[in-house]
Write a structure and sequence with these properties.
It is a single chain. With 234 residues, this protein is α/β, with parallel strands linked by helices. It contains ten helices and ten strands. The protein has helices at residues 40-47, 70-76, 93-100, 107-120, 122-126, 137-149, 167-182, 194-200, 218-222, 225-231, and strands at 2-11, 14-24, 29-33, 55-60, 63-64, 78-81, 155-159, 186-191, 203-208, 211-217. The strands form two sheets. Strands 6-7-8-3-9-10 form a six-stranded mixed β-sheet, with helices on both faces. Strands 2-1-4-5 form a four-stranded antiparallel β-sheet, covered by helices on one side. Strand 1 (2-11) and strand 2 form a beta hairpin. The model has no long low-confidence stretch (mean pLDDT 91).
Length: 234
């Protein structure tokens, strides 16, 4: 469904991604774990067209993405909920969700998806006309995911969805990710909270300073001694 091959991305002279190759199959949750600065967010930003690679390829259902603009990639069926949420804080919840569907012309479908998102995130329904900048971090993260869902993606790219959240909200966010996957969404998730990510992932990759160093099923990496020592607190 989604594949990167020998992806190389540079920030000036710094090689942020070095020959990174991953695959995501339909219906999977695939996790990318690693320490801060490992290149995890760079990988998602390259897939979604926000960064251009120096070499390598990104293909989605056989179509090359590296020559496309971000909005064209969204139209193909990929949607990115970025690190730090990046919601429009001076707009209401309703307006943020509407912006998630800005490429769509099917009004009935957009209305149905709005109801779906509000049903999945009841707190967004309660705050529908509220300025999103006045909401809690957990509510803003739900809005970022809901906005991404409004484009009706086939694959959802989630960048650090638990970052900065209280433990009970982290549990809620990961339950939402599992529910979305159970409903048929394919998910590529980047997370520093390796333990929680590996618990829900079908497969996972470990990035270190821009290079893939390990891969396997979520459970395999969850019990791998090297991963335990480096990312799971021993």
């Amino acid at each position: 469904m989604l594949e990167t091959k020998n992806l190389n991305v540079f920030y000036g002279a710094i090689n942020a991604l070095n020959d990174v190759s991953i695959t995501v199959q339909p219906g999977e949750i695939v996790a990318i774990i690693g320490s801060n600065g490992a290149g995890k967010s760079t990988l998602l930003r390259t897939i979604s067209g926000l960064i251009r690679p120096r070499s390598g390829s990104v293909s989605y259902n056989g179509k090359e993405l590296t020559t496309l603009q971000p909005h064209e990639i969204v139209k193909l069926g990929l949607s990115h909920a970025p690190e730090g949420r990046r919601i429009f804080t001076n707009m209401t919840v309703e307006e943020n969700l509407q912006l998630g569907a800005y490429l769509r012309k099917d009004k009935a479908g957009v209305a149905a998806d709005m109801e779906m998102v509000l049903g999945r995130f009841p707190r967004l329904k309660e705050r529908f006309k509220q300025n999103s900048g006045t909401m809690s971090g957990g509510e803003q993260q739900m809005l970022a995911i809901g906005r991404a869902l409004m484009s009706r993606p086939e694959i959802l790219l989630l960048d650090e969805p638990s970052l900065g959240l209280a433990p009970f909200l982290i549990t809620e966010i990961f339950n939402i990710v599992k529910d979305l996957n159970a409903d048929g969404k394919t998910v590529l998730i980047v997370e520093q909270n390796a333990n929680r990510a590996l618990e829900i992932a079908h497969r996972a990759y470990v990035l270190e300073t821009g290079e893939l160093v390990l891969q396997g099923s979520g459970q395999e990496l969850l019990h791998d001694p090297k991963v335990k020592e480096a990312y799971l607190g021993g």
